[in-house]
Amino acid sequence: MCQPPCHFVSNEICMMMSVPRWMLLICSLVVVVTYSSQESLQRYLANRQAVVQKESSHRTGGSLKLNSKELRVNQYLMTVKAKEYAAALQGAPFPPAQHFFKSKNLIEKSEVFQLIQLLPKGAALHLHDISITSLNWVIKNATYKADLYFCVSTDAAGSLQFEFFSVPPTVKESSCAVLWQSVSLARNKQGAAVFDEWLFNKMSMWTDDDPKKVYPNSTAAWQKFESSLGPVYDLVRNIGVFEPYLWQAMTEFIQDNVQYMEIRGLLPPLKTSNGTQLSRNYTMQKYATIFDKFVSAYPGNFSGAKYIFSSKRHVAEEIVKSDVSLALSLRDTYPDHFAGYDLVGREDAGYPLIHFIQELLLPSQLNRSLPYFFHAGETDWEGTSIDENLIDALLLNTSRIGHGYAITKHPVAMAMALSQDTAIEVNPISNQVLGLVDDLRNHPAATLISQGFPVVISSDDPATWNAGQLSYDFYQAFMGLAGEQADLATLKQLAQDSIRYSAMSNSEKKAAMQLWQKKWDSFLDEILSSIK
Amino acid sequence: MCQPPCHFVSNEICMMMSVPRWMLLICSLVVVVTYSSQESLQRYLANRQAVVQKESSHRTGGSLKLNSKELRVNQYLMTVKAKEYAAALQGAPFPPAQHFFKSKNLIEKSEVFQLIQLLPKGAALHLHDISITSLNWVIKNATYKADLYFCVSTDAAGSLQFEFFSVPPTVKESSCAVLWQSVSLARNKQGAAVFDEWLFNKMSMWTDDDPKKVYPNSTAAWQKFESSLGPVYDLVRNIGVFEPYLWQAMTEFIQDNVQYMEIRGLLPPLKTSNGTQLSRNYTMQKYATIFDKFVSAYPGNFSGAKYIFSSKRHVAEEIVKSDVSLALSLRDTYPDHFAGYDLVGREDAGYPLIHFIQELLLPSQLNRSLPYFFHAGETDWEGTSIDENLIDALLLNTSRIGHGYAITKHPVAMAMALSQDTAIEVNPISNQVLGLVDDLRNHPAATLISQGFPVVISSDDPATWNAGQLSYDFYQAFMGLAGEQADLATLKQLAQDSIRYSAMSNSEKKAAMQLWQKKWDSFLDEILSSIK
User: Which residues are in the Adenosine deaminase domain (chains A, B) (predicted)?
Assistant: First the structure.
């Protein structure tokens, strides 16, 4: 509690939660007395310096001490960052303030971005399985496979559907507006360039038009988002596509200097070439095998990956119940690869967590442990049942919070997250593209980072909005969320926190942190030699 | 400090500022133990209810107890509010999420807005003298006066200038693109409707076109904003316009159920009909006289007004020095009407407070008291010298912070404001129109209100953006910043806080609060009789 004299530089305990209103008055009187006395300029400047330093020490990374190599890299980083800020203050477009579809080219020209690409970013902890491999690869590989058919759906978005058939059905599928058509025939007829561009437009949210016109609100953005994911889901379920797709995802992330991934997914039953549907247990087994195989293929380079099984949030309670049971059993079978459970899909449109409370309490009632990784508070709608998901996620002891966009409007939830050391998974570009915020400087994670609140930066569904792997989101966080003063220490802390808040075991974390340190040292040398 | 067991519902001391990282780990372990044990549904729901109630009690107004009359009005209010939220969640346009120029019509149809219009809102504490009287009145009255001339400036915006002449100059003024022209002749020539609409377009930011196209960024918005204010300034400086203009401003605010105002201004030297320029001391004397006259004209209805003298933030140190001296002397001469001092103009473009630190420390060095009411942090540019204004404002013991838009990115500044009980003057529509934020649900004051951080709602320059007096901003705060659960208690607290955080003396505040209570009781009766 606040103990007068409440000189604010040395005493920050007068924080909002812990001070009743009557106490504020006492504090205020004491401060007024202090400050209406003779005050020399020097005393003022010293006080000011203390406040500025205190602010700075609170920021994510603010308590890290940089070594001499890091300080030299930091000097370079802050010089190019200052140049980009200065240009923006003079009127040049500031990428975080623009829609990503308008700013992507600008970001690529940024020297800050180029450094961030090289920076070992640690882990990407909030990713969805069907949007982690570049669409270019998906289109040029998966859709070139033999026996692939497509149709356009009857839904409002005219979504694309894919299916593999040795012999296609001769009657129209009820969800299709037309008969299944051969991809290779259609491609030959239209020309590969035209057809593949058409596929890209169906499978991506990207647009060269004004994105605010194309997606005037969150609902419109989500409609196209979900419509874009469908055809990738269809492809990835094919057993012939599944492994090369996942392999390619990890390859692309490692190339972007990400060393560990946690991937959410519905655990789709895979389909064989003759249409047989395999078990979800088998899918998990494939994930585990491929994760391990990839680690072996990149010795000393990749720390691995884990899977977070998710149900859609608009399904019936019975389905969540059986999925939770499946999750418990998979957690036993694959303790090193199966991280836990989540509910996914647009929060504004699905059931809130409280709707499934009986099912979600099941593990604790069975005295079993099932880590949760709930999406919560991915909304602008304060005070609705939707943003109360934050409270349920925390009461259910979620390991991290997916998005947590609304958390700064929930002081008690913030205190809970902090006391439980629950990190927020921040996905800046996703939040912008899906219509939560236009100018990323207004993203609530700016507040979180300024307080050193535990956050990890991730990219959600980067393939759908053509946002690479993790570097674009890291750039937006560094330039748009963390402010001009955030430096290499902030980037270092974000990278380290991504390992610290991962679902890895303590020994896995230790190994991952050692690997990260090795990569970090090489990165410092690489930058130093390039700026000589 | 956090004392385990850190059960978060009962123990919120684990707040971000006061808990070192090592302590978080202990807290987290304790909580995990608590929550992985057998947990009954009922215990869960009780815990949940406690968290939800705790959240609710933190919100501005959350600790107020409503009496039975207030509860009945609240029931009506929350019914109509829920209806408007439900429609928006179903896809109807939600006014705070749109640009005000698009949402004004929608707001006027809202039953919540209609109630807010009637609600006694207390004080408007952040207002600028030349944008507080509706432009309709200004155009239909001030510009119809004899001997008024105008010219279009040579500046990029083609700003309008006014001047009164008995005999106009025959040579072109250097700032004018053309010779001074008679307003009445031009009006006769073009027709009053056409000419007056042209005047409105020159004197207002309003546009029927897409405001995001017309004002693509903050710089474009500010250019038009400043260009719109110039001609009003020219008119108001005329001694024949000054008093009726100010009288009309107070009349309009009282009609909008505002009972007290604090008005910032440059203290322009008034001009007589023969062009003689009077002293600024005289301007202040006129303010004091008119304020008192107005209070007498509305006995038991209006608590008065005070003036906050302001310098522009791009002027030389010498000017600030002499303005501070003038402020000290006016504070002695008009203790009941002269509230204090501020610096105004676009923060992004002017000098930061630290630039004038020697001048601003003058009063304390002279052991004199000069209340400050600094604009600070009206920016999206975190970490720049601009948003450090927040720190200087607080170190200089500002009485309130104008805008403070950036404060949630400054944890130490937040703690300082809280310990000094310094309220933030929140002007939602201004911040939107001047390009800081698009969707008001992303306004940082949503975070402040959720914590019960001291805020007052004001309207800045409402005439320039055609936003009435205070009700539109109150509506935006209630619907867009405070979330769906905020109720009549939030509105009551905001109204009471506007008196509590005013520059009134304690006895004036007491009288104002009594008057407010009387108005509040009538308001409750009026609503109850209308909903019978």
Answer: 220-513
